[in-house]
Design brief:
The structure is a homodimer. Chain A contains 10 helices and 15 strands. In chain A, 40% of the residues lie in helices and 25% in strands. The first copy, chain A, has helices at residues 2-25, 30-37, 41-53, 74-77, 82-93, 108-115, 130-135, 161-167, 193-204, 243-251, and strands at 28-29, 57-60, 63-66, 101-104, 123-127, 142-146, 149-152, 157-159, 172-178, 181-183, 187-190, 206-213, 224-227, 234-237, 255-258. A 7-stranded parallel beta sheet of chain A has the order 6-5-4-9-12-14-15, sandwiched between helices. A 3-stranded antiparallel beta sheet of chain A has the order 1-3-2. In chain A, strands 10-11-13 form a 3-stranded antiparallel beta sheet. Chain A folds into 2 domains: 2-66, Winged helix-like DNA-binding domain superfamily/Winged helix DNA-binding domain (Arc Repressor Mutant, subunit A), CATH 1.10.10; 75-258, Rossmann fold (3-Layer(aba) Sandwich), CATH 3.40.50.1360. By secondary structure, the first copy, chain A, is α/β, with parallel strands linked by helices. Strand 7 of chain A pairs antiparallel with strand 6 (142-146) of chain B, so a sheet runs across the interface. The structure holds a DNA duplex.
DNA sequence: ATTGACATTGCACGATATTGCACGATACGG
DNA sequence: CCGTATCGTGCAATATCGTGCAATGTCAAT
């Protein structure tokens, strides 16, 4: 039985090792794999064909390449679920009034919001995200204030004591907040502790808090709590988000905007 | 499995690398690609032809250019005099040592410097330019610290009292400074008063100051003085910059590096 | 224990892809 | 206008690919 198990694992383990090597080197070469595993190139080709048919890698002449380049980095996350986020961003833009001071969170939705600010709008944008700042470079009417601090690489926003300190000197009319979860009882939450601190500090400095949440975030909760849901005044959700999900939030006094 | 040293490159991967190099450098040269990939120029020409037919780049005599040159205000300035600035950036990169804390100015040359930091380098980069910060998003080994403040639109860097205040909490090994003029008697100068304040504050917080100056900046002076030239320790200039221009600076004790 | 179904592997072989070289054509710079 | 560098094409050599098939090993049922 153990012999059986070992043999079964050898094939599968070899494929896993191929994927590991691929992730490590960015490419694998059939000939080299053949030598490493001491199997024929035919076997390797078979493995690669099968892995390719499962979408785990991309078959090319001589070996294989990753199916999706650089998974998980910030630039790539910026691409997913774009249509929904774009709709939310466009709707949220309507909440900005001329002359206001607005805080923009990091996150892809807020970058889209920045990109779609009306070209004629004159206002001040406070942000702790360099991406948002860069997005506003060519906007003629927007004054940009950058919150500094150590940059949390995963989400590319300033975090830490320096950022918290800088935030205490800000007073804003509205804060557009991105979350990974908004839940009637669990509250507003996000996946990183440092980010939660920052968002809480930002929310405390804005007269109105607008939460931007795609459907999967509604009635969900992440590890770190930012604040009670009542800390938010308005929630912008997708058009397709069911009323059943948003009604409990509306019952708590929040304004629900469907994009 | 033993570590297999990849001594050659898959065709498709080579094409991806060509595109990456093109995006990074703004141009590629057939001969240089041939040498770096250790294949014949014919193969490179074939690659370039095929990539051009896919619309991924624009074929020109001797190499290739990006198919769609990015447009924009700041982005556009980023394109001018690229080769000279790139050479300076590449030379300046050599001054960075592992584990160091370095301050990077705003400006196109510093963005190029950030882009060309060795992928394996582990260090801390302090910057008041969101563009530089965004450039470092996907660098695995670089810790980024953002100096916040009001963003001066023309050059896209944080300026003002908040930025000055934040800088006082920093201590760096080296400061890569961009200037619009470096003159033996007029000193280091720039075109904006706020920027001059910032650069002066940054220079005061770094153990070593490296000035990056393309030829037209040497022996030139702008409206606002940052400091005496002796505030700088090293000046990186273009290879073509005449000794006659740099000798007066060297006489003042500055190290001159020709890119 | 034996047998048959099934999985995995290696080999043969024709098909396809990639590469480098030769050669004539074309573009660039002085 | 000419020399040089670069370019594109044809071609041959080599490498890689996919498929069919036989050999070996494993598993489950008898």
């Amino acid at each position: 039985m153990s012999i059986t198990f070992v043999h079964f694992m050898l094939t599968k383990h070899r494929k896993q090792s191929i994927l590991a090597a691929l992730k490590r080197d960015g490419q694998v070469i059939a000939k080299a794999l053949s030598a490493s595993f001491e199997v024929s190139e035919d076997t390797i080709r078979r493995d690669l064909r099968e892995l390719a048919s499962e979408g785990l890698l991309q078959r090319v002449h001589g070996g294989a390449l990753p199916s999706s380049p650089a998974v998980g980095d910030f630039v790539q996350r910026q691409q997913i679920n774009t249509v929904a986020k774009l709709a939310i961003a466009r709707k949220a833009v309507e909440l900005m009034l001329p002359g206001q001071v607005a805080i923009l969170d990091g996150g892809t939705t807020c970058v889209l919001l920045a990109r779609h600010l009306p070209p004629t709008l004159e206002a001040t944008i406070v942000t702790h995200s360099p991406s948002v700042a860069v997005e506003l470079v060519n906007h003629p009417g927007i004054e940009v204030v950058m919150i500094g601090g150590r940059l949390f690489k995963h989400s590319m926003v300033a975090v830490g004591a320096a950022a918290i300190e800088a935030i205490t000197h800000i007073r804003a009319d509205v804060y557009f907040m991105g979350v990974t979860g908004i839940h009637p009882t669990a509250g507003l939450s996000t996946g990183d502790l440092e980010e939660a601190y920052i968002k809480r500090a930002l929310a405390a400095r804005a007269a109105e808090v607008v939460v931007l949440a795609s459907t999967e975030k509604v009635n969900a909760a992440s590890a770190y709590v930012i604040a009670e849901v009542t800390a938010a005044n308005t929630v912008v959700v997708e058009r397709k988000t069911p009323r059943a999900l948003t009604d409990p939030l509306a019952a708590l006094g929040l304004t629900i905007l469907h994009a």
